[in-house]
Specification:
With 339 residues, the chain is α+β, with helices and mostly antiparallel strands. It is 25% helix and 34% strand. The protein contains eight helices and 19 strands. It has helices at residues 42-50, 93-103, 108-122, 137-149, 167-184, 195-201, 219-224, 229-234, and strands at 4-13, 16-26, 31-35, 57-62, 65-66, 78-81, 155-159, 187-192, 204-209, 212-217, 241-245, 248-252, 258-259, 269-282, 285-292, 299-304, 315-322, 327-330, 336-337. The strands form four sheets. The protein has a six-stranded mixed beta sheet, sandwiched between helices. A five-stranded antiparallel beta sheet has the order 13-17-14-15-16, with no helix packed on it. A hairpin with a 6-residue loop joins strand 15 (285-292) and strand 16. Helix 2 crosses helix 3, helix 2 packs parallel to helix 4 (137-149) and helix 3 (108-122) packs across helix 4 (137-149).
C-alpha cells in the first residue's frame, strides 16, 4: 500500500474550490513534488495532509491510517518545513532544533544527542550557540530541516523551503536536500512553483492548476509527454512552442527546433520558415526569437554551442523539428491528441 494516500479530497473557501477532487498516492521513501503556479491549491493540499486545514470532502491516509478525521498534526507522523522556516528568534539554533523533543518530554541527554546528530548531518554544528538573526538564509533553512528531522517523522512536508534563497545558493541547497532525503530514506512531499526544483528533486511530479491535478509522472514523462497545453507550457525553459493549425495546435520544444542544415538527409522533419527577430547569446546557448508563417505567436529556438550556424537578426531561415518529437493538441480543449 502507498505510504501516503489522498483520495478525492476537496477544500472550498466560500465559493472558491482551492482543491477540487484530488487523488494522489505517494510511495514510501519517494520524493514527491507538487508543482504549479501561485494559487493552484498545492499549499492548501499540503496543509490538509499536515492537519492545518480540514478537507470538505475526501480521505487522507498516512502509513495505512486515516488521518483526516480528528487526528491532530502532532499525531500524524509528519514534520513540516515552512517557506519562512518559522524559527524562534529568542532561541539558539540548538534550542530551535530541540524544541519538538522538549515538547515530547524526552530526557535531556537524548535531546542533546539527537540535536548533535542532526546538526552534524547538515554541517551546522558550529552554529548551535547562534541565534537565527545571526544566520544566512541557507543556514536557517538547514536549522528548519534539522528541527523536522529530529522528530523522526514518517513524512516530511516541505512548503517552498528554498524560495527565499538566491539562485546560486538554491542550486547547492537542492543537492543537499536530495542527498539528505536519500540518506534518511523518508517520504517527502515538496511544494514548489519552480519547475527546476520539481524536476531536479522529484522522483515524480504532480502538476496542479486551479485546484485540479493536470498530470502525474516522472520528470521525464511530464516534460516529454505532456497531457495538455498547460503542462506543455508550464514546464521547460523556454516553454514549449505552440503553433496553431486548422483544428489543432502543434507543439515542440525549443531545443528540438534547429536550422534545417543541422539534420541528416534521412531525418523525418517538419519544416518551418522562421522570420528571425532577435538572438540572445547566453554563454552555452543561443535563444532565437521569431515567428513562423501562418502563426502570429512568438516561437523560440534554443541552440546549443555545438550548433555554430550563423543567424542574423531580421533575417529569414528554414528551421525544422523531427516528426517524432512533435506534440498535437486539440484546439478547443488543449488536451493532447495522439496521431
Amino acid at each position: 500500500m502507498p505510504h501516503l494516500v489522498v483520495d478525492r479530497v476537496s477544500k472550498r473557501f466560500g465559493g472558491l474550490a482551492a482543491v477540487d477532487d484530488v487523488s494522489l498516492s505517494v510511495e514510501s521513501g519517494e520524493f514527491f513534488a507538487l508543482l504549479g503556479p501561485s494559487g493552484c491549491g498545492k499549499t492548501t493540499l499540503l496543509r490538509m495532509i499536515a492537519g492545518l486545514e480540514h478537507p470538505n470532502a475526501g480521505e487522507i491516509y498516512i502509513g495505512g491510517r486515516r488521518v483526516d478525521q480528528n487526528v491532530p498534526p502532532r499525531a500524524r507522523g509528519i514534520a513540516m518545513v515552512f517557506q519562512s522556516y518559522a524559527l524562534y528568534p529568542h532561541r539558539t539554533v540548538s534550542g530551535n532544533i530541540a524544541f519538538p523533543l522538549e515538547a515530547a518530554g524526552l530526557p535531556r541527554a537524548v535531546i542533546a544527542e539527537k540535536v548533535r546528530w542532526a546538526a552534524d548531518m547538515f554541517g551546522i554544528t558550529r552554529y548551535l550557540d547562534r541565534y537565527p538573526r545571526q544566520l544566512s538564509g541557507g543556514e536557517r533553512q538547514r536549522v528548519a530541516l534539522c528541527r523536522a528531522l529530529v522528530r523522526d517523522p514518517q513524512v516530511f512536508l516541505l512548503d517552498e523551503p528554498l524560495a527565499n534563497l538566491d539562485a546560486k545558493l538554491r542550486n547547492m541547497a537542492r543537492d543537499e536536500l536530495k542527498r539528505f532525503q536519500r540518506q534518511v530514506k523518508r517520504t517527502v512531499v515538496y511544494v514548489t512553483h519552480d519547475q527546476v526544483e520539481a524536476m531536479g528533486l522529484g522522483d515524480r511530479i504532480v502538476v496542479m492548476d486551479q485546484g485540479k491535478v493536470r498530470q502525474v509522472g516522472t520528470p521525464h514523462e511530464v516534460y516529454e509527454d505532456p497531457v495538455d497545453t498547460f503542462v506543455a507550457t508550464f514546464l521547460g525553459q523556454p516553454p514549449m512552442n505552440l503553433v496553431e493549425l486548422p483544428g489543432a495546435v502543434l507543439g515542440f520544444r525549443p531545443e528540438h527546433f534547429l536550422p534545417v542544415a543541422h539534420f541528416g538527409a534521412n531525418d523525418a522533419l517538419r519544416t518551418f520558415p522562421l522570420s528571425v527577430r532577435r538572438v540572445e547569446y547566453l554563454g552555452s546557448d543561443r535563444y532565437v526569437y521569431g515567428s513562423v508563417a501562418g502563426a502570429g505567436a512568438t516561437v523560440i529556438a534554443k541552440l546549443p554551442a555545438t550548433v555554430a550556424t550563423e543567424i542574423a537578426e531580421e533575417s529569414d531561415m528554414e528551421f525544422a523539428v523531427p516528426e517524432r518529437v512533435l506534440c498535437y493538441f486539440d484546439a478547443e480543449t488543449g488536451m493532447r491528441v495522439r496521431p
